[in-house]
Amino acid sequence: MSTYFITGAAGTIGSEVIHSLTAKGEKIIAASRTPEKTKDLFNNSVTAVHFDYENEKTYNSALNSDGIFVLGPPLNLELYELLEPFINYLQDNNYEGKIVYLSGNGMENLESLPFHKKMEEKFKNSTLNWNVVRPSFFMQNFANYERENILDRAILFSPAGEGKSSFVSSRDIGTSISALLLDKNKNKETHVLTGSKSYTHYDVAAILSDILEKKITYANPDEETYKKVLKDSGAPDFIAEYMIPVYGMIKNGSVENITTSIKDLTGSDPESLEDVLIRDFK
Ligand SMILES: NC(=O)c1ccc[n+]([C@@H]2O[C@H](COP(=O)([O-])OP(=O)(O)OC[C@H]3O[C@@H](n4cnc5c(N)ncnc54)[C@H](OP(=O)(O)O)[C@@H]3O)[C@@H](O)[C@H]2O)c1
Question: In sequence order, what are the residues at sequence separation of 6 or more whose Cβ sits closer than 8 angstroms to the Cβ of residue 52?
C-alpha cells in the first residue's frame, strides 16, 4: 500500500482520483483549503490536510507521499504563478515520488491562456518524475456550470460555435490518473484523454432534450452577446476573458480529436456522454 497526496481533493477531478485510488486500497492525503469538508466528503477514509498553493507553510505533508496529483483551480489567469512555488518546493526537496499534472487538451497551443503550457514546460525542465494528462472538456461541465441554464431556462449558453468537442468523463479522467500514479513504468509521458466520440453543442442540446423530455436549445451566442450576458449577470470581466478562448477551441475545431488513451491506461472503454448526462440530469 502506498500513500498519495491529492490536490483539489474536494473538486471534480481530485475526488474521482481519490475514489479510484481508495478502491484499490491505497492511502490518501487529501489536500485542500477546506480539510473538514474534505474529511466529511470521504467519510473519514482519507487523511485531510490543509493545503494552499498560496501558503508554502502548508506544503510539507506532500513530502510524506509516494505520488502527487497536481491540479490547478479553474478560472485563474495567473495559474502558473499560483502553482510554480509548489513545484519549486518539490524540486528543492528532491521529491522522488511520481507526479501527475492535469493540463488540458488543446491548451498547449492556446497563446492567450499559456498557463498549462508553461506548467508542462516547468515539469519537462525539472528533475521530477512527472506525467501529464490533457483531458478534453469535461462531460460534467454541463451539470457543474450550466445546470441552471439547462433546467430553468432550457438553454445551453456557451460560445462554442458549431465546432465539436471530444467530451470526457471526470470518472474516466480520475481512473486514468490513478493508473498513471500506480504504474511505476510510466514516466515523462503526456496523455490526451478524450471520450470515444465528438459532439457539437447542438448534439448535446438534443441529448438533453431527450433526457429531460423538454426542448433544450443551444443558443450559440456570439462573443459580444456572451460578454454582455455575463456582465449583466454581475460576473467579473476576467470570466469572459478566460471562457471565450477556452470555448474558442471548440469553435475552431482544435478539441475534436479522439484518442484511445483511456482504454490504454485503464483497460476500459470511456463512458459515453449520454450515460453521464443521464446520471447527472435524470
Ligand atoms: N472543465 C473542463 O472542461 C476542463 C478541461 C480540461 C482541463 N481543465 C482543468 O481542470 C482544472 C480544474 O479541475 P476541476 O474541475 O476538478 O476543479 P474544481 O472542481 O473547481 O476543483 C478545484 C479545487 O481547487 C482547490 N483550490 C482552489 N484554490 C486553491 C488554492 N489556492 N490552493 C489549493 N487548492 C485550491 C479547491 O478546493 P478548496 O477550495 O477546498 O481548497 C477545489 O476543490 C483546471 O486546471 C482546468 O484548466 C478543465
Answer: 33, 58
Handedness of CA 66, 67, 73, 79 (dihedral sign): positive
For the CA of 7, the closest atom of ligand 1 is 34
| pLDDT tens digits, 22-60 | 999 999 999 999 999 999 999 999 999 999 999 999 999
Pairing of strands 98-102, 155-156: unpaired
Beta carbons of 56 and 89 less than 8 angstroms apart:
yes
Q: Which ligand 1 atom minimizes the distance to the CA of 170?
A: 16
pLDDT at 51: 98
Q: What is the pLDDT of residue 59?
A: 98
Domains of the chain as residue ranges with CATH: 3-137+168-194+258-268 (3.40.50.720)
How far, in Å, from the CA of 75 to the mean position of ligand 1? 8
Model pLDDT, residue 277: 98
* Closest CA to ligand 1's atom 39: 33
C-alpha cell at 161: 460555435
Instruction: Summarize pLDDT for 159-190 with one digit per residue, the tens.
Output: 999 999 999 999 999 999 999 999 999 999 99
CA–centroid distance, 10 to ligand 1, in Å, is 9
236 lines ligand 1 (CB under 6 A): no
φ/ψ region of 138 (left if φ > 0, alpha if ψ in -120 to 50, else beta) reads beta
Q: Which of 17, 20, 29, 32 to mutate to test the pocket of ligand 1 (most atoms within 8 A of CB)?
A: 32
Tens of pLDDT, residues 96-115: 999 999 999 999 999 999 99
Q: What is the pLDDT of residues 214-267, one digit of tens each?
A: 999 999 999 999 999 999 999 999 999 999 999 999 999 999 999 999 999 999
* Nearest CA residue ID for atom 43, ligand 1: 11
